[in-house]
Design brief:
The protein is 57% helix and 10% strand. By secondary structure, the protein is of the alpha/beta class. It folds into 2 domains: 307 residues, Up-down Bundle (ABC transporter transmembrane region fold), CATH 1.20.1560; 216 residues, Rossmann fold (3-Layer(aba) Sandwich).
């Protein structure tokens, strides 16, 4: 049974690398390769005829006809090579496009709490591996193998023309193959070392760039520079070893090519002087020996690429086997009307199976139009709980029921109309302000601008030179204030009119006017939507009807009466 499961897994991994709808014109490539190799025999055959038959009898009219036929064969060979290159290039582009889209879809639909401990740099490195697969799926490798199949035919022709002289190119080819395989295995080890070092360097680079403002605030530039220099040194040395192994392999090919030419000429000249071989036969054998080396050299190049391909294939297979967010089928009588009703039953969550649960036995009922607050120490799991309710993470145990359906039964485009998650750090996408508030056209622009007017985003945007067409990069280099970024994110979330609002300390980035606007909006929405509020602000805290503390992974309801001394201190009123 274990063997069967292993075979099924291997088959599944291979199928992953064949994107849906991708086809190669294999028959056309095979026929063109056969024709190219047949036409390539025209020049050796003509040389043999010219030197052995036509030159000794110059009065015959065969020469013009022979030259015309050979020129036609060479022209057809060139045309076929161009057509084959076009087919392979088009197949390469098609494959790379489809597999890259498939990989990106797997990333976007990944189950975030099962995606693994890979850093951003490793994901970027995995995606960059897509371009290394195409030569093994676009038909190029098949054409190389067919050309290799003609090598025995070339040896047969050499044996027919020169007899025992065939042993010379055969011996050199065997020695060349052994050396190439040995160097190929060395190249594989160098590539593996480079992959490991590059993953570390990419991860460090991404993390440093994401936290560059923190690095500068603590004056850690020199420390981080020294660390990156060490990683860059390792990467450079690993790249040097790969380049050394690759160049050594191709230099060996050039050396053996020259050795074969010199050996065939030397041994062939001896046979010509002894009368056992004609001059035309020697030239034909020399041309055929060169034809032997061409497909072998291409096979060597493919073998060299294969070492990199094996690593790239594993990266892409791991990427395409990323656990996906599963959509639970809805019940036939399931309530899908957005009302803001929420129920959590014995919810348990941990980021890794071996970790202690961050949330343990969470039970919560939220009625339509009700507002509650959740407080707790830093790192107690408040944001994790909101991520679970928003459908970003999936609990290991327990159920989260939203509007009568399990939270995992909603597709992303449905879920945003049921629950809106306002984060403490605003998420801005690379695009215009219009793109950001309409989710790149997924939300009605009129609906988004209506809400933008409620939170006075339209007034601030009107002061920008580009208005709603102002381009944002989503980084700290944007020309707009953090408060405006937060309000843009709030507009994007609330433009879908969700009936459950998750507010996770989003007031921290707001200025005085922005805070007053958002507080006023939340107060107006209180009777129309359900709310879960996580905030240190006393005014926002006061919007809640019930209050909970998150302690040791469980929710404990507070009892707050006239005496509020048992409530931890809050910020001063800002209104």
């Amino acid at each position: 049974m274990t063997q069967t499961l292993g075979l099924e897994t291997n088959t599944r991994r291979k199928d992953l690398l064949k994107p849906e709808g991708f086809k190669i014109r294999l028959a056309s490539l095979l026929l063109s390769t056969l024709a190219i190799n047949i036409f390539s025999l025209a020049l050796p055959v003509m040389t043999l005829q010219v030197y052995d038959r036509i030159l000794p009898n110059p009065g015959t009219g065969t020469l013009p006809v022979l030259i015309t036929g050979v020129c036609l064969a060479i022209l057809l060979e060139a045309v076929l090579r161009l057509c084959r290159a076009y087919l392979i290039g088009r197949s390469s582009a098609s494959y790379e496009h489809r597999i890259a889209c498939k990989a990106m879809n797997r990333i976007l639909n990944a189950d975030l709490n099962k995606i693994g401990s890979y850093g951003i740099g490793e994901h970027l490195h995995r995606m960059s591996s897509v371009g290394k697969l195409k030569d093994f799926y676009n038909g190029y490798s098949a054409t190389v193998l067919i050309e290799l199949a003609f090598v025995p035919l070339f040896f047969i022709l050499i044996a027919y023309i020169g007899g025992v002289i065939v042993a010379v190119p055969a011996a050199i080819l065997v020695l060349f193959t052994i050396v190439s395989l040995w160097k190929g295995y060395g190249l594989r080890g160098a590539l593996q070392r480079r992959e490991t070092v590059d993953d570390k360097r990419f991860n460090f680079l991404i993390e440093a760039l994401e936290g560059v403002h923190t690095v500068k605030s603590f004056a850690l530039e020199k420390f981080f520079s020294r660390r990156y220099e060490a990683l860059e040194e390792d990467s450079t040395f690993a790249n040097y070893k790969v380049t050394e192994a690759t160049s050594g392999t191709f230099n060996a090919a050039a050396i053996f090519s020259n050795i074969m030419v010199a050996s065939v000429i030397s041994v062939g000249a001896y046979f010509v002087l002894g009368g056992a071989l004609t001059t035309g036969g020697l030239i034909a054998i020399l041309l055929l020996s060169g034809r032997i080396m061409q497909p072998v050299q291409r096979a060597l190049s493919l073998w060299t690429q294969y070492q990199d391909f094996r690593l790239a294939r594993k990266h892409i297979e791991d990427l395409l086997m990323t656990p996906q967010h599963e959509i639970t089928p809805k019940t036939p009588s399931g309530q899908t009307l957005a009302e803001g009703k929420l129920s959590l039953s014995n919810v348990i969550f941990r980021y890794r199976n071996e970790d202690t649960p961050i949330l343990s036995g969470i039970d919560l009922e939220l009625r339509r139009g009700e507002a509650i607050s959740i407080s707790g120490a830093h790192g107690s799991g408040k944001t994790t709980l909101l991520n679970l309710i928003a459908g970003i993470y999936t609990p290991q145990e327990g159920e989260i029921i939203l509007d009568g359906e399990n939270i995992s039964a909603y597709r992303a485009e449905e879920l945003v109309r049921h629950v809106g998650y306002i984060r403490s750090v605003p998420l801005i996408f690379r695009g215009t302000i219009r793109d950001n508030i309409t989710c790149f056209g997924q939300t009605s622009e009129a609906q988004a601008k209506e809400l933008a007017a409620l939170v006075q985003v339209d007034k601030d945007v009107a002061k920008l030179p580009g208005g709603f067409d102002t381009f944002l990069t989503g980084t700290n280099t944007d020309s707009i204030t953090p408060g405006l970024k937060q309000r843009l994110a709030i507009v994007r979330v609330l433009a879908n009119k969700p009936r459950l609002i998750l507010f996770d300390g989003a007031d921290r980035a707001l200025d005085k006017d922005g805070y007053a606007t958002i507080y006023s909006l939340l107060a107006r929405l209180k009777t129309k939507t359900s709310m879960i509020l996580v905030s240190d602000d006393r005014n926002i805290y006061g919007l809640a009807e019930r209050h909970y503390d998150l302690v040791d992974g469980t929710l404990r309801q507070k009892t707050i009466g006239a005496n509020t001394n048992n409530v931890r201190p809050y910020k001063e009123l800002r209104l």
